[in-house]
């Protein structure tokens, strides 16, 4: 998912989609789960030369990826859609001094309980052995830029350094996540639950575990048979409830926690054993996947009345 925070920021994407034929290209690629250039040109009944300019505009806007694939008749360029969703803020973003931003590295969890398949890796190498739970307690886990497990949880301490005598009005968290299938499987649903200070604030069904094309930031040493990227999700808890990508997933609101500058914030991501879809969880850091970020947190706060 791509979050566009202003109309100006999304100008290149709007231009790329300002063509009926380019919109049709996106629809075809979504329906076919990717297609090479020759097939796409034939499907659209246009020349390869005419198609190339449209593909270039979509690729420059970050809407699709184009990778070379070896086929029986030589190399072919396969096109695939990169984004599952675009969220646009039409209201202008105002400068707010009452915001604290923090970033939590994927490996900086404070507690865990996981079951295989599972594992961790840094930007340069695997951490221990895959499917050996013991390595989640290895000192090197702090260097992890990707982790995965089938069932269980990881818990993070969210930094809270807002000024004294302030209360927390909203917590917004963005992270790249997906399911965890053996190898990868785009049709592998998983119920991923979110907890704040041991209170369940909602859950989201991940549609699958993705590895059809290399992740934009996934290192080259990473095996192509493993998952490559996830989906960027925005988790927000405020006075109206808890939301994923703007869609409400529960009525649990921030006020029920009475959070202040002195409060500890513990975020737990879990796949519960009694869930309908026990399809695992993968969390991507800034050196894996399609988004160069870790678990990013934004805390909005205001003065405590009285």
UniProtKB/TrEMBL annotation:
HTH arsR-type domain segment(s): 2-97
Superkingdom: Bacteria
Pfam assignment, any one: HTH_24
InterPro entries from the UniProt entry: ArsR-like_HTH, HTH_ArsR_DNA-bd_dom, WH-like_DNA-bd_sf, WH_DNA-bd_sf
UniProt protein name: ArsR family transcriptional regulator
Organism of this sequence: Blautia hominis
């Amino acid at each position: 998912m791509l979050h566009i925070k202003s109309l100006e920021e999304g100008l290149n994407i709007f231009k790329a989609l300002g063509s009926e034929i380019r919109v049709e290209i996106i629809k075809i690629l979504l329906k076919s789960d990717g297609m090479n250039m020759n097939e796409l040109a034939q499907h659209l009944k246009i020349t390869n030369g005419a198609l190339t300019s449209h593909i270039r505009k979509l690729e420059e806007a970050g809407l699709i990826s184009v990778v070379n694939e070896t086929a029986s008749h030589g190399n072919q360029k396969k096109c695939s859609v990169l984004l599952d969703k675009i969220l646009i803020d039409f209201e202008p973003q105002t400068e707010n001094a009452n915001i604290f931003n923090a970033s939590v590295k994927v490996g900086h969890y404070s507690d865990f309980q996981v079951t295989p398949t599972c594992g961790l890796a840094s930007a340069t190498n695997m951490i221990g052995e895959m499917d050996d739970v013991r390595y989640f307690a290895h000192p090197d886990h702090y260097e992890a830029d990707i982790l995965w497990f089938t069932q269980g949880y990881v818990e993070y301490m969210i930094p809270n350094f807002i000024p004294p005598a302030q209360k927390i009005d909203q917590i917004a968290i963005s992270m790249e996540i997906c399911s965890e299938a053996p190898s990868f499987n785009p049709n592998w649903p998983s119920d991923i639950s979110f907890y704040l200070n041991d209170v369940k604030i909602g859950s989201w069904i991940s549609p699958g575990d993705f590895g059809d094309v290399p992740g934009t930031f996934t290192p080259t040493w990473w095996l192509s048979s493993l998952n490559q990227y996830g989906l960027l999700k925005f988790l927000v808890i405020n006075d109206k409830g808890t939301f994923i990508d703007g869609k409400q997933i529960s009525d649990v609101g921030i006020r029920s926690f009475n959070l202040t500058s002195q409060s500890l914030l513990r975020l737990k991501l879990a796949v519960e054993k009694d869930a309908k879809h026990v399809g695992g969880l993968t969390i991507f850091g800034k050196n894996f996947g399609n988004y160069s970020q870790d678990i990013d947190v934004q805390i909005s706060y205001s003065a405590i009345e009285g």
